[in-house]
Amino acid sequence: MTLVGLVRPIVAVSTALLTMTAVTRAQDFNDYPTSTRVEYAFGCLKANGESRQSIEQCSCSIDVIASLVPYDRYVTAETVLSLSQVRGDMGGPFRTSEQAANALNELRRAQAEAEVRCF
User: Fold this and answer.
1) Concatenated DSSP letters for 13-71?
2) Measured distance CA(73)–CA(33) in Å, rounded
3) Are 111 and 65 in contact (CB under 8 A)?
C-alpha cells in the first residue's frame, strides 16, 4: 500500500471526528429553543423600536445571553422574574429569597453584557 493509500483513511477519520466535535459544541451553545429566542426578541423589539437595526441588536442580545447563561438557569430567572410580580404572600418568596436574587442577578449581568456588545 502506498503512503497516499494509508493517509486517506486517517484524514477521513480525523475529518469525521472534527465535524462531530464542532456539531456537539454548536448544540451546547444553541440549547435555547427557538420559541424562547423569538419570545425574547419580540419583547426586545417592543422595548427598542421595531426597526431593522433593532432586529439585529435584539437577536444579538439573546445570542450573548445564551452564551453566558445556560438555558435551565435562564428559565429559572425568567420564572422568578414573573412570579416576583405576583402580589401578596404568593409572590413573597420570589422577591426575598437569596436563591431568587442570585438567579435574577445572573440574568441581569448577562443582559448588561448583551447591552454592551449589541447596542
Assistant:
1) HHHHHHHHHHHHHHHHHT-S-HHHHHHHHHHHHHHH-SSHHHHHHHHHHHHHHHHHS-H
2) 14
3) yes
Report d(CA 95, CA 33) in Å as an integer.
27
Domain ranges of the chain: 8-118
Instruction: Report the candidate in 67, 66, 44 with the shortest Cα–Cα distance to residue 55.
Output: 44
Measured CA to CA in angstroms, residue 113 lies from 33, 77, 89, 106 at distances of: 21, 16, 33, 11
Neighbours of 35 (CB within 10 A): 8
Q: Is the pTM of this model over 0.85?
A: no
69 alpha carbon, distance to own chain's centre: 6
Using one digit for the tens of pLDDT, what is the confidence trace for 24-69?
Answer: 444 555 699 999 999 999 999 999 999 999 999 999 999 999 999 9
Q: Residue 21 corresponds to which cell in the numbers above?
A: 466535535
